[in-house]
Amino acid sequence: EIVLTQSPGTLSLSPGERVTLSCRASQSVSSSYLAWYQQKPGQAPRLLIYGTSSRATGIPDRFSGSGSGTDFTLTISRLEPEDFAVYYCQQFGAFGPGTKVDIK
Amino acid sequence: QVQLAQSGAEVKKPGASVKVSCKASGYTFTSYTMHWVRQAPGRRLEWMGWINAGNGDTKYSQRFQGRVTITWDTSASTAYMELSSLISEDTAVYYCARAPSNSGWYWNYWGQGTLVTVSS
User: Fold this and answer.
1) pLDDT in tens, B67-112
2) Of A18, B74, B88, B106, which alpha carbon lies 20 to 30 A from A29's?
3) Among candidates A35, A91, A98 on the partner chain, residue whose Cβ is nearest the Cβ of B44
4) Residue burial A5-43, b: 16+ Cβ < 10 Å; e: rest
């Protein structure tokens, strides 16, 4: 069973900053099945990235994904106020614990 | 447009069962697999299982095997998730979710969530 871990647990940042979120798998996983979601309080998750680096429909290009093997990254090039949320990585039936990005 | 509309909040006693519905619209229901994902307060998302709405095949997470049953009604374009032998740790928001393709393992369509509270 694959276990996903994410780091850091929480990031306190200011609008305009660049952020890099990490997702590590307990064993090598297929890049085709690594996805990232954004979730805000009281809302369902929103798909951002699938297949490690493909942006979902309507997702701004400030969001990008990369990685392979066991290490994957979600980058937000310039934080907008609406980007403060929790971010989860996912591969098949496994989700990471999430990284909370909050306002400094 | 694709929409997944879930049933309302439930309060159940320990040991009881709960059945949550997910009514699909805006696409051909039988052409896609429907997944169920839950989120307990302050915890990570957990995948529970899926149903192939075309033929009724199901697959469940080992964590919920024996307690979860996913069914469907094609005439109503609705999927159902029933969880039995409820315990307090089953208190969570339950979501149905659909992938952009029938075999996809990422979900771009989500229901609004159904809060299930287990309390004596």
Assistant:
1) 999 999 999 999 999 999 999 999 999 999 999 887 789 999 999 9
2) A18
3) A98
4) ebeeeebebeeeeebebbbbbeeebebebbbbbbbeeee
